[in-house]
Amino acid sequence: MAAVIERGSRDSRSAFAKIVNDERNRSIFYQILVFGIIGWIGWYLITNTAANLEARGMSSGFDFLNITAGFSIAWSIIPYEPTDTYGRVYLVGIVNTLIVSLLAIVLTTILGFTIGILRLSHNWLISTLAAWYVEIVRNTPLLLQILFWYLAVFSVLPRPKKSIDIGDFGIFQLNNRGLYFPEPQPGDLFWLTMFAVLVAVVVVYFLAIWAKRRQLATGERFPVFWTSLGILFGLSMLVYLVTGSPLEWSIPVLKGFNFQGGTVLPPSFLALFIALVIYHAAYIGENVRAGILSVSHGQTEASSSLGLKPAWTLRLIVIPQAMRAIMPPLISIWMNVVKNSSLAIAIGYPDLVAVYMQTSLNQSGYAIEIVAMVMLFYSSVSLTISAALNYYNERVQLKER
Predict the structure, then answer these.
(1) How far is CA 145 from CA 138, 150, 172, 178, 297, in A?
(2) Which of 240, 252, 265, 309 has the fewest CB atoms found within 10 Å of its own CB?
(3) Residue 382, Cα to own-chain centre: how many angstroms?
(4) SS3 assignment, position 92
(5) Annotation: CATH topology of 86-169+266-396
(6) What are phi and psi of 331, to 5 degrees?
(7) What is the pLDDT of residue 19?
(8) Which whole number is the average pLDDT over 35-62?
(9) Which of 11-20, 44-53, 216-225, 352-361 has the lowest mean pLDDT?
(10) Where does the pLDDT of residue 142 fall: very low under 50, low under 70, confident under 90, or very high at 90 and above?
(11) What is the pTM of this model?
């Protein structure tokens, strides 16, 4: 009986030793332990902070989001009144931040690719000017560039009565109060036109896929660009005209000391937007230049021997291969555009930091909650950009077999 018990004890110790010595089991145990420690630290910080706030008679929680803010916001894309809540202020700050950031990302990428290609131009003057642009802009703090555009450019523009008529069309007016331009006022059936645009985009997407497969199979190129333009504008315009042109425009007209009608982009928006584009385009330009130089020169020579034009070589052969080196740093630059937009607080643009972390925090006193919500927004946007571009980066990377 004793021998059986001893043998059972040895078997149980052997089984335990196998579990303990298994690398996978140890890895799972350590991960659970680390997550447990992090969770305990987070619980301790939250409960300790809540206790300290209660001891000092300070409120906590997110009930303040339903409280009336009571202050005005200088400019907003979405409707806002001082009688709206702090939750509405948070939404206004998010929209104002996203609109300037997304527009800046698009134009930054276009300008950056252009600068990067111009830096490799065989024309000495063009390549030198592009190099000067990159070196000067990259070595000047972004905050100084924002202040320059706001104080030295837009603040010294003429008053509304002497506005600069851009293009001499009478509908785009630039003065020290901003850029005035027509505002669209859609009718009841305009949604059909927007639906037609969406359908056209889907058709163009599948057309591009078909054209690429066709080219790989037969070697014949299909005019995707002009066909896509025809589909986008043709289908949209057809639906627009059939539905009775359900869109009117409010034109800005000078009445008294200011313009009435239309809409306006304030000087703070314009200064921030231009500074973000010019500053970050310099970094993208260098990334593009390095990515193109990383492509073997033999690729260019091979395309030339096949009779391809230099523009086709760059667009069809060099750039697609260079994207493997361009994409990783491009992710960081796009995220920096969003985060650096918070510098708008220096010139009074009502972004999320200005209207929420400054005005709302000072009035309500909910510092921890407000800071956490702002951090959550910037983290979410950065993670979204990173996930989207990392997915594209995986698609363009070489697949090893």
Answers:
(1) 11, 9, 25, 18, 37
(2) 309
(3) 8
(4) helix
(5) MetI-like fold (1.10.3720)
(6) -60, -45
(7) 61
(8) 74
(9) 11-20
(10) very high
(11) 0.83
119 token code pair: 């830096």
Kindly tell me if the per-residue pLDDT of 189 is higher than 60. yes
- Other beta carbons within 10 angstroms of residue 108's beta carbon come to 27
Whole-number Å distance between alpha carbons of 306 and 315: 15
Does residue 309 register a pLDDT over 70?
A: yes
Q: How far apart are CA 117 and CA 94, in angstroms?
A: 34
**Could you state, in order of their start, the residue ranges of all structural domains in the chain?**
16-55, 86-169+266-396, 183-250
pLDDT at 292: 87
- Looking at the chain, the whole-number percentage of residues with pLDDT higher than 90 is 31
The CA radius of gyration of the chain, in Å to the nearest whole number, is 29
Give the total residue count for the chain: 401
Return all residues near 167 (Cβ < 8 A) that are at least 6 apart.
none
Nearby residues of 228 by Cβ (< 8 Å), 6 or more positions away: 204, 207, 208
Angle between helices 267-293 and 86-118 (to 10 degrees): 40
At CA 213, angle to CA 323 and CA 215, rounded to 5?
Answer: 85
What span, in angstroms and rounded, lies between the C-alpha atoms of 100 and 116? 23
What is the Cα–Cα distance from 386 to 379, expressed in whole angstroms?
10
d(C-alpha 256, C-alpha 272), whole Å = 29
Q: Within 13 Å of residue 120, how many CA atoms lie on the same side as its CB?
A: 19
Structure token pair of residue 219: 């070697």
Residue 124 has which token pair?
């000495």
Tokens 């802009």 -> residue: 137
d(CA 290, CA 111): 16
Q: CA 168 → CA 90, 182, 263, distances in Å?
A: 39, 14, 18
Q: Do 90 and 266 touch, CB atoms closer than 8 A?
A: no
Element (H, E) at 174: strand 173-175
For a pLDDT cut of 70, what percent of the chain falls above it? Answer: 90
86-118 vs 319-340: helix crossing angle, rounded to 10: 140
Q: Is 68 helix (H, G, I), strand (E, B) or coil?
A: strand
